[in-house]
Write a structure and sequence with these properties.
Keywords: Membrane, Transmembrane, Transmembrane helix. This is Gustatory receptor. By secondary structure, the chain is mainly alpha-helical. It has one domain. It is about 85% helix and about 0% strand. It contains twelve helices and two strands, in the order αααααααααααββα. A two-stranded antiparallel ribbon has the order 1-2. A hairpin with a 3-residue loop joins β1 and β2. The N terminus is likely disordered.
C-alpha cells in the first residue's frame, strides 16, 4: 500500500490539493500535520464558543447569534472530518487504485488533460476565495472587537480565524478535486463508445461483442471507484450542505432585515453572493458526476439503434445489459447516504432553503 501511495504522488495524474497530497504521502510529517490541523480546528471552535460568542450574543440579533454558533459548529465538524480522512485514507487509496486502472490502459492522456485543466481553474478559485475570506473575516472580527471590547488578543483571534477560513477553502478544494477525478473516469468510456459506434458496421460480430463487453466492464469499474469516493466523502458532503445552506439562509434573512444602513446592506449582499458561490461551485461538480452517467445512457441508447440482425446475440445482450445497469440512475455522490445529489435534489433543496430564508425572522421571534 505504501508503494502505491508513492507512485500516485509522483504521477502526473496524481492529486494536487494539500489535503490529497497529505493523504497520499507516506511520511510521518504529513500525517502529523493532518492531526494538528484537526485538533486546531476543534480547539478554535471550542475557544470561540466559550469566550467570544457569549459576549457577542448579549448584543446581537437572534439571527446573528445562531449564525455565529453555526460557524463554530462547522469548524468543529471540519476538525472531526479531517480525522475521518486520516483514519479512512485506505478508501482514498482504493479510489486512486481504481482510477489508475481505468485510465492506465485506455485514453489516459485525455483524462489527464481534463484533470489538469480543472485543477488550474480551481487553483485560481482558491486564491480569490482566500482573498474574499481574509476581507470578510477581518471585517467581522474587527467590528466585534470595536463594538464589544472583547477581552482577548485581537490580532491573534483574527489570524486564527483567517487560518480556519483557509482550512474551509482547502476542504472545498479537496471535494471539488475528488469530483473532477470522478468526472475524468467517464472520458475513456465515452471514447470507447465512440469507437464502438464507428466500428459497428465494419467489424465482425465477435469484435463488436468484445468491445461492448470491455466498455461495460470499464463502466462497472467507474461505478466502483465512485462508490469508494462517496463513502470517503460521505460526512464531508453532508456537513458541507448542512452548514452552507444554513449559513446562506441566515445571511439572506439578515439581508432582508438590515435596516437603513446602505453600507451594511451592500456588505450583506456581497457576503450572500460570496457564500452562495461556494455552494453553487461544489454542487455543480457533484451533480456533474451524475449527469455524465446519464449522458452515457443516452449514448448507449442511440448505439442500440445501430445494431442490426447481422450482429450476434451476445453483442446485443451486452448492450441491453449495459442499458439496464445505467438506467438505474444511481451513480454519483449522496447526501448523508440517503439522497443522490442530482438536479431534482438541488431543486427541492433550493425551494426549502428559500422558504426558510423568508420565514426565518418570524420563526426566531
Amino acid at each position: 500500500m505504501d508503494e502505491i501511495k508513492s507512485n500516485y504522488y509522483n504521477s502526473q495524474t496524481g492529486p494536487c490539493s494539500l489535503i490529497s497530497c497529505s493523504l497520499v504521502r507516506k511520511n510521518v510529517f504529513s500525517q502529523v500535520m493532518l492531526w494538528i490541523v484537526s485538533i486546531g480546528l476543534i480547539f478554535n471552535a471550542s475557544y470561540r464558543i466559550y469566550f467570544i460568542i457569549p459576549a457577542i450574543q448579549a448584543h446581537e440579533t437572534t439571527t446573528v447569534k445562531y449564525d455565529q454558533i453555526l460557524d463554530q459548529m462547522y469548524s468543529l465538524c471540519l476538525g472531526l472530518i479531517t480525522m475521518h480522512f486520516e483514519l479512512n485514507r485506505s478508501l482514498y487509496i482504493k479510489y486512486l487504485d481504481c482510477y489508475q486502472t481505468i485510465i492506465g490502459n485506455h485514453f489516459g492522456a485525455d483524462s489527464s488533460k481534463f484533470v489538469h485543466k480543472w485543477v488550474k481553474i480551481i487553483r485560481f478559485w482558491v486564491i480569490f476565495a482566500f482573498i474574499y475570506e481574509v476581507v470578510t473575516s477581518s471585517i467581522n472580527d474587527y467590528s466585534y472587537f470595536q463594538e464589544f471590547s472583547l477581552q482577548v488578543n485581537m490580532f491573534a483571534t483574527i489570524s486564527i480565524g483567517i487560518i480556519c477560513q483557509l482550512c474551509y477553502i482547502l476542504s472545498m478544494q479537496f471535494i471539488i478535486e475528488c469530483c473532477i477525478y470522478c468526472q475524468a473516469t467517464f472520458i475513456p468510456i465515452n471514447t470507447l463508445l465512440d469507437t464502438l459506434s464507428n466500428q459497428n458496421k465494419r467489424s465482425s460480430s465477435t469484435d463488436v461483442n468484445r468491445m461492448a463487453k470491455s466498455t461495460r466492464v470499464y463502466y462497472i469499474k467507474t461505478i466502483k471507484s465512485i462508490e469508494y469516493m462517496d463513502r470517503f466523502l460521505a460526512y464531508a458532503i453532508s456537513v458541507f450542505y448542512l452548514y452552507f445552506i444554513g449559513h446562506c439562509v441566515f445571511v439572506f434573512s439578515s439581508t432582508l432585515n438590515i435596516g437603513d444602513s446602505s453600507y451594511m446592506l451592500f456588505y450583506s449582499i456581497f457576503r450572500f453572493f460570496g457564500e452562495s458561490s461556494y455552494l453553487v461551485l461544489v454542487t455543480y461538480h457533484l451533480i456533474r458526476v451524475n449527469q455524465l452517467s446519464v449522458q452515457i445512457f443516452d449514448k448507449v441508447y442511440q448505439l442500440s439503434f445501430s445494431f442490426n440482425s447481422d450482429q450476434s446475440i451476445e453483442a446485443i445482450n451486452e448492450i441491453n445489459l449495459f442499458l439496464f445497469r445505467i438506467n438505474r440512475n444511481d451513480v454519483g455522490f449522496t447526501f448523508a447516504g440517503l439522497c443522490l445529489v442530482s438536479p431534482s435534489f438541488v431543486s427541492s433543496l433550493s425551494t426549502i432553503s428559500l422558504t426558510l430564508g423568508l420565514a426565518l425572522p418570524s420563526i426566531l421571534k
